[in-house]
């Protein structure tokens, strides 16, 4: 058996694993990425890369390529509630296209938006873009068709693991400083380190039918629309052309699980039409979070660490933020300037955020169920008689009143904060986070709000690779810079002679981490800069914190 060495072994080549590898390479850290499948997925698993994820892909230089792979920039994000695709439209929630949203972001340049609009794109389309990027990167050893086999052992210096080439059975032993488990819901890495999941399994089920159709009189009856929804499921337009996915809820008593894909699809649409089934299968969704994200030198990210029902689209998007958070921490450790507390911080930051997203997905699912009950109570409403028309009007009014927080929870997407982090200088008074409305804040632990600068660049574009001290005025930073040099902590200074930005940034000085989250802020620089830098670089001992499992 041959053996190789590398700083990081990444198990799993889905979006999270590939994004982690690209972020590590951005910091100059080599990795080996193994994926048991020989090619990227052909299974439709998600259809939205949200604004926060697009911000993180922006710094990897991938936004244009991802947008080219997604739906056209001018197409809307509309969500329409219908009786059926052969019946009537009840109520439409209109949302701007990516192009319209970009114009709005530029016009409302006050910190309230992500720098990038969200992207409608199927995981089937996003993965090849990421695969091309990792294949082209000399710091990433890409091994598709190779599975993570077992964790042999780990010690204070590193991890030993075996990987196996699927086609030949050839086994290779890998010695690495860190192992990242990005290998999905059934994570072999998570199971081998003995980490259990908290939450509920099989909370809901659906029958997925992925199909191709150019019968636009049916699939685009009311024009290009992102989601067509009824009380029994959703049709998702994957490319606004010919690829669609039906998620028909497995409601007890309907017997969908015993029907053919054709019966499920035509039954939901309401009539036969022209289509080709690409894939079909029933599935169940979970609401679970790993009990810990770190065990020694083994870390978990993405679906191996958390699984949500896709209401709100938080699954993969949470994983992209996991990758951004984990990558700089591993880089700091590999490069020697970060302390071990950084890894505890990864758990104490990303695990509560997973519960934050899980609870949001639960709320969105409850709304779906509430509307489904309204459909069930109203009965047959597809007729053209006065009674049916009146029922449709009443149901549409009720749906409009309930709203569509599932696609409007900007506070959930952008406003979360790492309140339990041991590498953040916390303040006693904190901004209240509204799940729906994102209010720009610079509380330590939160994401740095975006604004465009005079030259058209986002403030995010001007941040350094590692820590950045953002200076709103003209304060003297020489002592702070000297403290960073003495501690060998990489630091950039971003001077913004823009007092007009104080209403957004709230303090004269902001210390921003590599993941764009704020580590510290103040109107004056700290007298003991060395102590503060030691804390944010993970060199100080971790304080005692309460349990992070979030109760309902």
How does the SSE layout of this entry go?
Elements: E1 2-11, H1 15-26, E2 31-35, E3 48-49, H2 51-58, H3 63-69, E4 79-82, E5 89-93, H4 98-107, E6 119-120, H5 123-135, E7 140-144, E8 146-154, E9 159-165, E10 171-181, H6 188-192, E11 197-212, H7 216-219, E12 227-230, E13 233-237, E14 243-249, H8 261-269, E15 276-290, E16 294-295, E17 298-300, E18 306-307, H9 315-335, H10 341-378, H11 386-402, H12 410-414, E19 467-471, H13 478-486, E20 491-495, H14 502-505, E21 509-512, E22 518-522, H15 529-536
Distance between the termini: 50 Å
Total strands: the figure is 22
User: Major beta sheet, specifics?
Assistant: 8 strands, mixed
Q: Multimeric state of these chains? A: single chain
Residue-averaged pLDDT, rounded?
Answer: 94
- Radius of gyration (CA) equals 24 Å
Q: Name the poorly predicted regions.
A: 542-552
β-strand amount: 15-25%
DSSP helical segment count? 15
Q: Estimate the helix proportion, in percent.
A: 25-40%
> Which structural class should the secondary elements be placed in?
alpha/beta
Shape: globular
Describe the protein's architecture and organization:
With 552 residues, the chain is of the alpha/beta class. Helix content is 31%, strand content 24%. The protein is built from 15 helices and 22 strands. The strands form 4 sheets. Strands 1, 2, 7, 8, 9, 10, 16 and 17 form an 8-stranded mixed beta sheet that branches. The chain has an 8-stranded mixed beta sheet with strand order 5-4-12-13-14-11-15-18, sandwiched between helices. α1 packs parallel to α5 and α10 runs antiparallel to α11. The longest helix is centred in the middle third of the chain and has 38 residues.
